């Protein structure tokens, strides 16, 4: 049972539900539990069993206790999935020093002995349950992730499911029994096929396998397109294509990559072991190992981080760690508190993204601007404006009106903003002089920052 698949999502448990002896119960807080021999277990606890076994194996080989670990995850895991993975290590009795992305770890394994000029590599990681692509720049031991993308619901298991569904249809034709309608029967059918039992046999050619999965194979090229676009790198500028994950052994996958990049993918590292090698290198870096002293790793965040009102504050593929600022104003006057909700994800609606947390800004000083305006018999404000300024404004209104009628309909945003600034440059000094006249005590003088503030949009909270 692939533990990555278990932790991959809180809502998709088809690989587990296909096993007849495993019962899934989803609690009201949307946390699934697996009932094994009537003992309720969380996904973290199931995965912790695997890590515990690995810990025991390492201790038996090394001859001493293992207390720390570097754990890898699919690059497109969100914060909640990464935290769940870290919790798994804690349950297993390990101090998880670092969570790193699997393609990045594989790149460390591939580029450890690479010296000299800068090279750009694509790490194509197609495993059993997830798919990730990362574009990295490597130069003299410095690994910089330029962009990453992926699909947490695509992998070798999906290819297997296509084959199982195909064989189930043939089985129905031959026997009249439809096992696809019964999850328990389907689970048993799957296991019987995997064990090679001869009660049912059918020849599956490579051509048929490729036909069943061709759309999924081609789907893996979309994230490849995305990372090249995000990093502004042409496909011909990629020096190496590194294959990671057992599913990259599929000949059709290698052929599609060769056709896409115009070069053979690299087969210099074991696709099943590359990620583990990279994690070990990262462990050496954290432990201060002499052999890894000159290695530096710079990764990026895989998903947009933003707040409820304004969307992306930190774009995806921003180098970590980072800090971004954004200007906001309150939605209502004298509003003393602002509640800010932070989300992570690529979806338009906040409800479809991962909620990272909420915090409140309190004690915001309510600010009022007091103005006194005198209305008299001289046409409202007319008594406060000089004849020269009046003529200037009338000419400006006429000129601007003519510009809007002739140029406005086809003007782009930048041209409109430029025109607005031109008008403000003439109007603002006149307005300032008008309120500086005796009898128009505003009680407020604009600060330097406000006078110089450029035209821009802002968000309300």
Automatic annotation (TrEMBL):
One of its GO terms (molecular function) is ATP binding. Residues 446-461 have a biased composition (Basic and acidic residues). Keywords: ATP-binding, Nucleotide-binding. It comes from the Eukaryota. Residues 434-461 are annotated as: Disordered. Pfam families: HSP70 (PF00012). InterPro entries: ATPase_NBD, Heat_shock_70_CS, HSP70_C_sf, HSP70_peptide-bd_sf, Hsp_70_fam. Belongs to the heat shock protein 70 family. This is Uncharacterized protein. It comes from Hericium alpestre.
């Amino acid at each position: 049972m692939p533990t990555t698949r278990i932790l991959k999502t809180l809502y998709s448990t088809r690989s587990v539900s296909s096993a007849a002896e495993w019962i899934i119960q989803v609690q009201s807080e949307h946390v699934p539990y697996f009932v094994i021999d009537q003992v309720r277990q969380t996904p973290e606890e199931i995965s912790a069993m695997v890590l515990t076994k690995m810990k025991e194996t390492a201790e038996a080989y090394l001859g001493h206790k293992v207390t720390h670990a570097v754990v890898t995850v699919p690059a497109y895991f969100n914060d909640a999935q990464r935290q769940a993975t870290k919790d798994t290590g804690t349950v297993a009795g390990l101090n998880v020093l670092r969570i790193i992305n699997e393609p990045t770890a594989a790149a460390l394994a591939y580029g450890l002995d690479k010296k000299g000029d800068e090279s750009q590599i694509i790490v194509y990681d197609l495993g059993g349950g997830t798919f990730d692509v990362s574009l990295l720049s490597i130069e003299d031991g410095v690994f910089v992730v330029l962009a990453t993308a992926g699909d947490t619901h695509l992998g070798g298991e999906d290819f297997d499911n296509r084959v199982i569904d195909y064989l189930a249809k043939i089985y129905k034709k031959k026997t009249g029994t439809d096992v696809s309608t019964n999850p328990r029967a389907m689970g048993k059918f799957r296991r019987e096929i995997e064990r090679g039992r001869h009660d049912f046999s059918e020849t599956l050619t490579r051509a048929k396998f490729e036909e069943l999965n061709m759309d999924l194979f081609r789907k893996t090229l979309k994230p490849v397109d995305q990372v090249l676009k995000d990093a502004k790198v042409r496909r011909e500028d990629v020096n190496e294509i590194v294959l990671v994950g057992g599913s990259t052994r599929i000949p059709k996958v290698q052929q599609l990559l060769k056709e896409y990049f115009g070069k053979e993918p690299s087969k210099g590292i074991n696709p099943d072991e590359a990620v583990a090698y990279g994690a070990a290198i990262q462990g050496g870096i954290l432990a201060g190992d002499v052999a890894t002293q000159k290695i530096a790793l710079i990764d990026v965040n895989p998903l947009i981080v933003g707040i409820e009102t304004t969307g992306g504050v930190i774009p995806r593929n921003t180098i970590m760690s980072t800090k971004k600022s954004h200007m906001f104003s309150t939605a209502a006057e004298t509003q003393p508190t602002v509640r800010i909700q932070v989300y992570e994800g690529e979806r338009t609606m906040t409800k479809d993204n991962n909620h990272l947390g909420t915090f409140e800004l309190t004690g915001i000083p309510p600010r009022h601007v007091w103005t006194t305006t005198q209305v008299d018999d001289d046409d409202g404000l007319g008594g406060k404006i000089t004849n020269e300024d009046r003529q200037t404004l009338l000419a400006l209104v006429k000129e601007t009106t003519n510009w809007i009628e002739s140029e406005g309909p086809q003007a782009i945003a930048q041209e409109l903003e430029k025109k607005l600034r031109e008008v403000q440059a003439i109007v603002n000094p006149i307005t300032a002089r008008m309120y500086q006249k005796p009898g128009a005590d505003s009680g407020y003088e604009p600060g330097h920052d406000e006078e110089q503030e450029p035209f821009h949009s802002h968000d309300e909270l």
